[in-house]
């Protein structure tokens, strides 16, 4: 290859490298933006306390009540997944990055509410204000675990760097997980619904297992909201 040819190859390689870097930067910016939306939305999500849940589901014990909450949340995330999956099957799909971001935020909101209410059911409410509890439950969602109220550091991390990093990593993993439901050559609505239903139930199993080890019976007092 002569000098001109080598120069053209080098220029092409440099241009491709720049494109990859720019694409990566845009992808990271998108992930961070979605994570920030989830963080901002969390304190606004209405979470039912134990008294309200027991009133709405009379006669049920903790496990039965938790089963009801999980079934409802799984149905909700399945509906979100089906809607986005169906959109991907259209001849000219809408802007997929926007659709994907909307699904991630929608699913996160449903699962956040589920986790917060499971903590109520098992008597392990996070301490502090509504915002402080929201931060604790966001951490539980990101790490797929129940909070440990005996260790203040796990609750009082607020919006620290580590918590944001973990949340963003969870959003990134969820983005990749949801890609098949957005691909026009995949099954679409059925796949999107099934994936979300399965993953919400899997998340619930992990959190419930964690909370059972710390469970406070209903006949014992639960910390009051501040």
Helix fraction, binned, reads over 70%
Structural class: mainly alpha
Q: What's the count of strands?
A: 0
Number of helices: 8
- The H/E string reads HHHHHHHH
Sheet-strand content, in percent, reads under 5%
Largest sheet: none
Radius of gyration equals 21 Å
General shape: globular
Rounded to the nearest angstrom, the distance between the terminal CA atoms is 74 Å
Total domains = 1
Low-confidence stretches: 86-90, 92-96, 180-187
Mean pLDDT across all amino acids? 74
Structure, explained:
The chain is mainly alpha-helical and 226 residues long. It has one domain. Helices cover 72% and strands 0% of the residues. It has helices at residues 3-41, 50-56, 62-88, 96-121, 130-143, 152-155, 161-182, 189-212. The longest helix is centred in the first third of the chain and has 39 residues, at 3-41. The protein is globular and about 50 Å long. Mean pLDDT is 74; it is low at 86-90, 92-96 and 180-187.
Structural features:
mainly alpha, 226 residues, 8 helices
What is the gist of this entry?
The protein has 226 residues and is mostly helical. The protein has helices at residues 3-41, 50-56, 62-88, 96-121, 130-143, 152-155, 161-182, 189-212.
Q: What is the topology?
A:
Elements: H1 3-41, H2 50-56, H3 62-88, H4 96-121, H5 130-143, H6 152-155, H7 161-182, H8 189-212
